[in-house]
Structures
1.
Amino acid sequence: MKSSGLWKGCTVLLSIVSIALLIAVTVLTIQLKELVAESARGKTQQEETKVVSTYKSPTTPTKSVFDTLTEEEIIEIRNFMFNQPELNLVPIDQATVSSNYIYLIESVLPSKKDVLEHLDSDHTLPVRSARVTCFMGEKTTPRVEEFLVFPIPKVSGYTRYINPVQRPGPIPWNSRPDTDPETNEIDKRLVGPVMLTLYPVLKATYGYWYHNCTDRCIFFVYAAKGLVAGDRQMYVRGFRAKLDGYYLWPMSLALLVNCNGNDPSKFKLTKLYYEENSFHTAQELLIAYNNGSIKKRVYGYPPTGPTYGSPDLRGEREANWKKLPKQTEPDGRRFTVDGQKVKYLDWEFNFRLRAVTGLQVMDMRYKDERIAYEVSMADIIVLYSGKEPEGLQANLHDASWSIGARHRPLLRGYDCPDNALYFNNTFFDSGTGTAQVFHDALCLFEHNTALPISRHTSVNFYGSDNPKYLYKYNMPGSVMILRGIPTLWNYDYIFDFVFHPNGVMETRVAATGYVQPWNWSPGEAESPYGNFINREFGILANLHHHLFNFKFDLDIRGQLNRFETWDITLENRTNPLAPGKRWYQTKMNRTLRKTEKEALVSYIFEEPKYYVICNQKAYNSVGYPKGYRIFSNSFSKQLLPEGWQAENGFSWSRYQVAVTKFKDNEDTTASLYGQAEPYCPVRKFEKFYSDNENIVDRDLVAWVSLGLQHIPVMEDIPVTTTPGKQLSVVLAPLNYFDEDPTLTSQDAIVIRPED
Ligand SMILES: [Cu+2]
């Protein structure tokens, strides 16, 4: 009996254990499936960017003067240009440095006058045209030429495109961005042979080399610059390949190549840089290395598997991990889209992506009145520091790599929320010589910020009995966001154009992506140029200054506006309640800025002020001119001496706010040619204001510069984070309305206690 009871007991126990194990296995299997599904989600969503059809208007979109070029139009323009025998253009894959080939095709807006006549006076749709930028290497004096091609579609003619803002004469050959026909020649004639000569040094120093390298390859990054005006030098910098975050694995190995002219046989090595030493030739380096006159450094291999540059999850995923919260739109979307035109509550605007400079909003209206003709991203610069030539001279002009064309597919549900609409980026790709489409490159969504636009609880201070409050008021903060994220080599810039319900529009940019480190002596303890992220490999994350320029072409109740600063100063006056006592306080003084030079404003901490664009002929009910205020808490002093060499290439950064008279030719501060020729730039902002025109009651454009000093630290590894790195400019109505315009919003709530 006893043994039978024991047996029964064991059976029951085993059964319980088996059931428990079965439950545990089932639960684990379900969790594992979820984890696998989650980890696969990234991949699935990547694929989605290719296969999911993007937004299409429910009907054929209305043609707009702001439409950018379609794939078919780009190809039509390209083929038209190929058919002009006098241009003798060849496809990029057949081109050499001494060929004529197309670099860029982008739409050009008609003059503002024509556009406004069309929009406001029902004139017919102005003729659309495009600018075609060609590298004319075949000429005896090679040059860059820009052509205006028209009409679109059904192209039938072209003329030379002359922009009087740009420096006179042809666009200098040395100022062009680098392209494959040139870099391939440099690789074949110089980089390859030099690296072959240096093979023993490279192998001994890095364990990485250039030829037949399989898993231990050096790859080179090219950037066209010059040492002085008119010069063209290619900076060629070595990195360890096939590593996540390869930006974080630079080598102290660079070539400077003189590539002036159009004859690659005359390209020559200016200098070779290796582990803090400069040489004229590879042979010179080899001799110095072999005779021991330079230090023989030996770096190990990066660890196998994920390195510090890898973004893969560290550690185990928590078993009880739960999904992120999501927003919902209970009654569906509150905006409509027709082509590139958006209507959202009281807002209406057109958006477009310009190849060189990126995001633009045109004809921006609030409550049926135009507030701005244009709000655009204008230029991006990053000024690096460092001991090495690359860090020292790396003043990067992102527009020279076409900011707009770098708007790649967004990751659905991550880069933009689930409720977003997506739009494609269609552009001419200089690398392949044809139209390229990046799906889902822009997104548009409404977003509840959870920060009320306004709220108040009115407390009953004049009665001791109930009710304790008189009313509660809340206007929720929900905004429309237009987002695009260009990836420019290492950095990703998240651009948001934000439309608040109270007539406030905001442009924001947040920096993320990889920081770009350079090298520093591995044995040294400290560096004035940043923080080590990898001492063993002598890799230093260098300090740098991000600078952004935005364009605000405000048209407040028409084009004729003026620019005032409302200066806040200190006064010391008698207190009427205590005669004989003095009292300090602030006061405001409206200062009319009459000319373009008076309208160059550098931010000074001791001189707080409002920046105001207003219309002196349109008043609100109190009698104040209707205006908009430009506000930013993201100003940053650009420290380089004014007019010093490369500083000429981004002279807009001298001023935090500059207001100039509108000119069609002064469409942006950036230039394709800024990187290669910053010293005597093709386009110089100084020219916008040097004629010092009268700006009182004129059509005005405000150029606003923001900046971010960045001293990278270990937490910038692997990918630098956005909190604290988002900059913004706010356009806010200023005496434009008679009261807060959201008082008409049905989103608001007023609660009064019942009697
Ligand atoms: Cu940075």
2.
Amino acid sequence: MWVARQLASELKEAALTFMPYPAKDFKIQADRVGIIFPVHIWGLPRRAIQFINHMKVKPGTYLFAVAVNAGQPAATLLQLKILMSKCAMPLSVGYSIAMPSNYIPWGGPGPIKVQQRLYRQARKEVKAIAGSIQRGEQHKVDRGPLWQNILFSLIYKMTFRQVRKMDRKFWVDEKCDGCAICAHVCPAANIRMVDGKPAWLHRCEQCLACLQWCPQEAIQYGKNTIKYQRYHHPEVTVDDMLEQAKVKRG
Ligand code: SF4
Ligand code: SF4
């Protein structure tokens, strides 16, 4: 969300819209269209795939993408380029931007100094990307080294079908007060409140929004998250998250 906002502000006349959920036909009339999305397990999130399959643009639209990732974009933008060309939407440019990882089951965002360095770097990169888009550039999409593309793409393919059910490892501790923020911020409508506690419905995207935005830090994933601090970008608020969920679901 932060990268998309920054880019829209650099491009000046750009309008932001969230990928609708559930996916439905989505016609876009703009001359330039960009897809800004997070990399999940070294590939496209299911939500992004579904959106692209339902997206329609005018012939000749300039298409760009930004893959926000935790330092290893692997072959995600190649995957996107192939998918978009199958949908007759040739991607002109695709950029990778590294940000702190929000996946705390694997260790999390790193020290504050590292996070701040990544934010500074991302601001610079967003400016450069905006310039490239304004000039209508066309070139190869960003990608990781070959070994990363092969190995991580394999892991992505092997895990893709499992992701929806990976929510089985979520649990809530005694701090949960039943506020339902986790259910409201979930981009996949994957949480239902049952007897005042969240229940996960097995159509998870593993974005970890529920865990990161729980005001009580009551959501845990497996055994490790209990010892890690929660993370979200300092310029994104819970109201932003609630607003995007409202926009998406109508
Ligand atoms: S956001 Fe946290 S405190 Fe609120 S219902 Fe969900 S788990 Fe409980
Ligand atoms: S918010 Fe939680 S339940 Fe919803 S998709 Fe993300 S990780 Fe899964």
